[in-house]
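Customer ticket, subject: "Can you confirm the structure for non-specific serine/threonine protein kinase?"

Message body: Hello, I'm evaluating your service for our small team and ran a test protein. I'd like someone to confirm that this is what the system normally returns, since I don't have a reference to compare against.
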Amino acid sequence: MGGVDEREMAPLLKEKLDEAEVSNIVEPFWSTNYMQADTTALKPPPFFKKSSSYFAWLSQFSKYMLTRSHSNRNSVWKDLFYACRSAIRSQAGIDVAEFVFPLLVLDGVCFGDKHEEDAITSELLDALSFEDDKSAMELRQREKAANLVFTLLDVLKHWLEQETERIHKPSKGKSKRVYRPTSPTGGNSWPMESSIKKIERLLARIPFSSCAVAASKVGMHARALQYLEMDGRSKVTSPGGANLTDQSKDVSKFLKSQFLDGIDLQLTQNMLGQLSDFDTMIFVAQKSHKSDMTRILAEDAAEREMYEDWEGSFQAYERLLDSRLSNEDEGGNIPAQKGLLRSLLKLGRLDSVLNQAYGMSTQGLSETTDICNELLPSAVEAAWRLGKWSVLDKLVNESSGETAFDADARYQLEFGRTLRNLHSGSTADVVTSLTAARDSVMSSLSGAARVSYTQSYPCLVQLHALREVEEFSLSLETGEKRDQSLDHVVSSSEWRDRLSITIPDATGSNAIINSRLAISRLMDDPSIEGGMWLDVGKLSRKGRLYQVAEHSLAQADVSLSKCLMKEMKSSTTVSALTSESMGKLKLQFAKLKHSIGESTTALKIIEDEYQQRYFK
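Agent reply: Thanks for trying us out. I re-ran your input and got the following:
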């Protein structure tokens, strides 16, 4: 196809390429001297513990299996794998690496030696291990690695079922052989009996318990529960697991598979609670070990928290912490401490959250910085909700390493960092922290969306709260336009309608209400807070949540009174907006009194307002 010089293109070929209008694309590749070569030596495993990102781990691990396959004469598809080596080196080719990954693992297991099989198994277990946190990879990257392993296990199990079904499928004729896909060289792609045994052995070396813990860490609650169930049934039906139950030996193997023994029942309860299956959660609690008082208190606290009984969960976590004062395992206090702070946040006891966080961090049981980092997200949220900007600035600066935080904790930290940047006037940092907070919410939403809309609802409310802060940050302009722009945002229909999609709340568990309170205190503008509480009170009254409505209207009265006093100090007149808001407030108070049966009080409120407005 070349001319006199091999680097010159033949006239006929060049003419054809010109007709196809691809000559300019092909010609540089024809005349180039570029040759692809592996300049770096192959690194030995382990890879996961040394990798700082998901892509680095997948690239190095795939390159290891690819190189081993290329040097293995028994590997049928080694040339195909070797042709993909360029794709796995760049971030753009990560989809190719993920697609080829199950085939590389199967090739290494079927045609590789025991050393390669052990290396592959070790890497998969490291990716699922969240107990010994020796990896340099941050949590959001570990979520991708765990998801890749789950996909691999599903694919291998699917292939195993297909191969097994193909073996036991009766043939239509004696002379016909079972169909097997062939390789380009004409031989069978995989040895059938050998591949079945190798896949079974690999799957057996990946414990269901490790998969369940990893799935719970990355937010895959339904998958975690599935692995826990598979773990319990496999232990009961296995030859060595017959003594796990107290049932009679005469019980059939099928009936024994209905019992779940030898699994982490506390993790099972937690996953059932996350999936809102409270009846099953209570039943599992009744079957758990009742002799362990600590376990009973932990299950009671988790159950109350799932039912959103925040006062009950707070008391349960307090009892749980008291029962562990003599426990030598310092790390055992961390879940109870975090649960206690969560309950206090939901109850609106923000000062207690800060006091408890500082107190727990200075206790003899909690001297390490790791425990302080675990409590930091709750303390950050309490600080910005209280409007303590100096405390917030100090706490945000302390959160240097965030690799160990889950998605919810990252959201708390990034939301607090966003408000800190707003307070300091750093517009560029506001955009960065808002993006990071939104990424954290999307990470939680992707896991919750696999289950149900109910699980996704809190994440959607958090996204709306971030949108409110974003709109507010865009309105912060210099000069006279600033107040006009802020008034336009607050009076917009989108701003008002967001409260209608949320559940009215007066304790502080509503993310949109909390964000508006923070904005009001950030701007030192009580009219924003007063208008917000007035809308919440109106929605609560219409929803027959009379206690919430009364509390909200009382909060609106305090805020609007502050606004009234502020205007009276600056001028002798009251603005029309404040006067109108005070009139709406009294009208809502009258409607509330009428709704709860106090019609006389409602009429008196209306008469007083009428007299003040027309006979002053």
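A couple of notes from the result: Confidence is low (pLDDT under 50) at residues 174-179, 181-187, 242-259. The two ends are 102 Å apart (CA to CA). Feel free to reply with more questions.
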